[in-house]
Each structure stands twice: as C-alpha cells, then as structure tokens.
Amino acid sequence: MTRTRSIVRWVLALVPPFMLTAAIPFANRVEPRIAGLPFLLAWIVLWLILTPAFLACIYRLEGRP
Amino acid sequence: MTPAATALSIVALVVLGTIGFALYAVRRVEMDPQQYIVGGRSFGTLFLWVLLAGEVYTSFTFLGAAGWAYGKGAPAFYILSYGTCGYILGYFFLPKVWRIGKERGLLTSPDFFLDRYGSRTLCVCVAILQFFLVVPYVTLQLTGLQILLSMAGYGEYHAKIAVGIAFVLIALFVFTAGLRGTAWASVIKDALVLGAVVFAGIFIPMRFFGSPGAMIGRLLEVHPHWLTLSTGTKGLGITWYVSTVLLTSIGYYMGPHSIAAAYSARDENTIRRNAIFLPIYQIVLLLVFFAGFAALLIVPGLHGSAVDQSFMLVVQRFYPPWVLGAIAGAGALAALVPASALLLGAASVLSKNVIGDLLGIATGDRARTFVTRLLVVVVAAMALYLWLVYKTTLVNLLLLYYNGVTQFMPGFVFALVWRRVGAWGVGAGIGAGMAVAAYLAYHSIDLGGINPGFLALLVNVALCATVTLLTPNRKPAGDAAGSL
Fold first, then answer.
1. Which residues in chain A are closer than 8 Å to B214, comparing Cβ atoms?
2. Residue among B110, B122, B101 at smallest CA distance from B422
C-alpha cells in the first residue's frame, strides 16, 4: 500500500470515532430535530449509518476481494 | 389457564425449543477442545455475525438500555456509540489476532499473551483475572432473567427459583453443545429479539402517542433537558459520555468470549466483512430507547434498579399474556444465550491456561474438554452467588466488567505494534490499571466526570510504556509484530 493510501486509510478510520466522541459537545442540542429525533440522537444515528461506508472504503483501499 | 401460566408457558416453550434446536444441530459434531472452544475455526459470515453481534442483543440491551433511557435520558446514548467505535478497532486488530491464533493453534485470550510475551506467569494472571471479570457480566444476564420471569409470572411465582432452573438448564446446554451450539442458538435468539424490539420500539409508541416522533415531542414537553447531555464535569455529562465511549469501545473485544469468537472465524476477511456491517445492527438499539422513553411517559415514578423493568411493566399492564410471554421469552434468550458464550469463555481460559498449562492436569484432548465442561458449572454457580448478594442496575454491572477487561487492551495492541514491549511492562500496566479501577470504583471518587475505568487505562498505558523504556530491549519477536 502506498504512503498516501495508508494515510487516507487512517483518516477514514478515525473520522467516525471522532464524530462520536470529540464532536459531541457541538452536537449536544435538541434543535433542529431530524426525522423527529433530537439533534444529538440524530447525529449519533447518522454516524452509525455512515461508519459501514467508511469501513467499506478502507476495505477497497486495501485491495481486498 | 391464568395469565401468569400462559405467559410463563410461552417463555418455557421458546427457551426449551431453542435449546432443543441447537442440540439437534450439533448432534454429530465430535467435541475436541478446538471444536468445543473455538468451533473448529470454521465459522462463516452468519455464525461469526451472531457471535460477534451477540453483545448487541443481551439482557443489557433488552432491559438495561431501556432502563437507562427511562432513568437517565441522554447518557444512555453512549450505548449506541461504543459498539460502532469498537467495530472499527476490531476491523484493524482482530484479523491480526486471528492470524496469530491460526498459525500457533491458540485457543484462548491468555494463550495470545503467552505466545507474544513468552511469560507463563503473565498468561496465568490474565487467565485468572478474565475468569473473575466474566462473573459480573453473567450476573447481569441473571438479573435480567429475574426481571423477565417475575414480570411474566405477574408476581405470583418465586422468580429466584425460576432463574435457578433456567440457569442450570443453560449450564447443561453449554456443557453439551460448546461454541457451535451457542452460535446456532444465537441465530434463533437474534431473530426473536429483533421482533420483540421492533414491537417495543415502534408499536408501543404508536399505540400511546401516534408515532415515535410524537412521543419524542411529548417527552420534550414534560422533560425539556432529557435528551441532551449536561455540560460541565458533574455527574453523567459530556466528559463522562466521551470517556465512557472510549473506555467501552477499547474494551469491546477484550472479553475471553470475544477473542474465542474471533478465533472461530474461517478467515481474516470474514472478520473484516462482519466489522463493516455490524454498526448497522446497532441502530436497532434506537428502538430500545424509544421503549424506555415511552415507559417514562406511561408509567413514571420508577427509581433505582427498578428502572430496568420499565418497558416490561408497560407490556404487562397494557397487553395480553401471550404478548408478554412472547417478549419475555425473547428476552430470556437474550439473557441465556450470551451467558452460555460467557460461561464457555471463562471456563476455557481457566481449564487451558491454569489447570492444563500451569498445573499439568487434564492436558489430553478428552480430559481438557471434560474439565472445561465442569468449570462451566463452577462459573455459573459463582454468578448465581454474586446475583443473590449484589443488587445494582444492569448498566452498572456492565461498566464494572468493562473497567476490568479494558485493561488487557494495551497488552494486545503493543504485542502487534511495539516489539520492545515485554511481559514486565504489560504485567505492571495491567496490575496498576486493575488496582486503580478497583480503588476508584469502590470509593466512588468523583473525577470531574471522567469514567474511572478510563483513567485506570491511562495509568496502565503510561506505566507499561515507562517500564518498557526502563528495561533492556528484548530480542525482536517473530513475524507477527508490525503495523496494524
């Protein structure tokens, strides 16, 4: 794996945990409500949905079948 | 037939039917230690999925998550986040652990420590600690089972006797069926629990409020700050949330049952593919929160450990006995099937690494399988004892487990990325981490909101690194050390 790919791989891996921990103070509010959910809960659910996409990108970057 | 008899009959039918199905599925499998403990290292995507996702659907999920949504509000959201972060870690480090396990024929988590650090003392210490740390996790399942059976019995029966019978049953099931039997039972369990959670999270809010969205609106009218975390460092605020997500996600795969599940995979990519899709499974927990929020509005006023029975109380009061029985049956499986994996994980580390490798007893295949089976019964008895004497909420029991098992993570990660680390550094780190976690938990010291287990982990890593740098460099290890 090239150095660039390796860096991209680690960035992709670190984004969801960052959004679910360090970014929580910025998401810690009720409004705007999204699909009826308070913003904080919607933010967490959003990153639950996006995490598989990030991991799938890493899987492809690693050239796996 | 009384309502209690109807509900309990359905629970018994669900549990006995699942156990019967799993035993039938493994009837022709020859049980040597490889087969009994790690399923012959042959599990494909489905079996590995239900084993690795087993932690998503336990008593903790079924009752504890709803209980915390009822009793605490937004702090319960950590439950949604930590599994996702844990799966990302698992994507990178579990395939490496699997490869070493496959090459060296490792069966247990302490085997990994023996192989990487060459210290039998460290291996035995890890085995004994893991054995005892699993007990509160099994106790959690027992506590959940008691709530479910007492609810299904409408308070007419002595739930403790029913829990005892159910647990003897599951110990005998593990005794017979091993990890493959647990995997088969997990398939049924996950399907039934999924149905029960959809009912609790969608149909209860729809019946009482019109929709889950309308229920959230009503909740915000009654409790305006219930769905946001408190700022500052007091209580269960943002600091607690972040440190708890980090602690529990780092410790997510550190239980002996999780490492055994990873060893059981057919190949590395099976583990990676599972890690990619498992976060989607977590979304179902959102429905469990809905059940807890609905219960808060329908049956307010529960406090302490009573919050764990909140949504079952709604089902008991407002739905017919057969619905209560079906949901309690699914919940009973959510307690018993994960408990079977935990019992097997704890028993295998003690039989392999202490009784077999250290004491030289029962080293043959047949004898080792027999001793593991006996220890399953011993762990079950210890968990029953702790359950009788120690009353707390399900979430507190889980956090007690995580405070301990997370202390093994530096030893796993350093083995893969830092050749210089030796047994002294890892042992000192684990010892200090355990001591700090136990001291802080016992004295309930306020650390400005930081989870005590997370602080213990920082002490662990710092001491491990310091001891490593102060001791002479050991000879470079073999092929497995390297990058993640």
1. 36
2. B122
Superfamily of chain region B3-408: Sodium/glucose cotransporter (1.20.1730.10)
| C-alpha distance across the termini of chain A, in Å | 15
CA angle, residues B375, B377, B383, in degrees to nearest 5: 105
Nearest to B279 among A36, A48, A59 (CB): A48
More confident residue, B46 or A6: A6
Confirm or reject contact between A56 and chain B (CB < 8 A).
yes
Measuring CA to CA, how many Å separate B363 from each of A7, A44, B358, B374?
46, 48, 10, 15
Q: Longest Cα pair distance anywhere in chain B, in angstroms?
A: 74
Contacts for B300-304 with beta carbons within 8 Å, 24 or more apart? Answer: B302/B70, B302/B71, B303/B71, B304/B393
> CB contacts < 8 Å between A and B, how many?
97
DSSP B268: H
Q: Does A25 touch chain B (CB under 8 A)?
A: yes
Q: Where are the domains of chain B?
A: 3-408
Report the candidate in B405, B400, B397 with the shortest Cα–Cα distance to residue B144: B397
CA distance B241 to B111: 33
Mean pLDDT of B187-201: 86
Specify the higher pLDDT residue, B462 or B313. B462
Query: What does the alpha-carbon distance between residue B386 and residue B260 come to, in Å, rounded to a whole number?
Result: 25
Nearest to B403 by CA among B233, B260, B243: B243
Find the distance separating the first CA and the last CA of chain B, reported in whole Å: 60
Task: Find the CB nearest B74 among A40, A49, A56.
Answer: A40
Both tokens assigned to B267: 């190949």
